[in-house]
């Protein structure tokens, strides 16, 4: 069956002497694998459109249970800046890696597609990359059924006096329940506010947010610990981001 869809390239791998296999995320079909024959060749009409982060119109032939075969494609947004800037590339890679590894074949949603598209654009436009990443992480937690409890104490349900975030228990803790997790992470008012609004915030409406470094540090600690406990994936792109942070690159 010939399919015509818009999609974002999540992964692009060399295959054989001149071909590429791309993992394509689409609003209609979810995540699909597509063979682009000859795409490795410099003069190939598919060389540019099969690059990582590319958003475009794709036409491919696909039979049920088989990999698609690319017929034609047109670039809508090339995202050159995301591939040329080291920091942008690392953070954008984390977004597409999460999408690629947390979704099964032909799994996805129009909403997540729009959030990813907006997230890549937000990074390219110079918006706070860490906030974009955390916002998208929250979308993926929700999709996977692991959304943390952030509007009340995960233990007793109290909505006031929240002082810490417990990745192991699955959300925030009030002062009275803090003792139940010795490893709970202290959070201030700013971090708590963002944790509360991330689940309902639409990436397409993200403005030029200004977040204190202390707040961002707390968010980073909370979100990374939560990701490690509940998703348990060794993210290559996040590991690269952490190396850049470690050596202040």
TrEMBL record:
Gene expressing this chain: recO
DNA replication/recombination mediator RecO N-terminal domain span: 4-78
Record function comment: Involved in DNA repair and RecF pathway recombination.
Record flagged with keyword Iron: no
Alphabetical keyword list: DNA damage, DNA recombination, DNA repair
Name of protein: DNA repair protein RecO
Entry keyword DNA damage: yes
Family listed: Belongs to the RecO family.
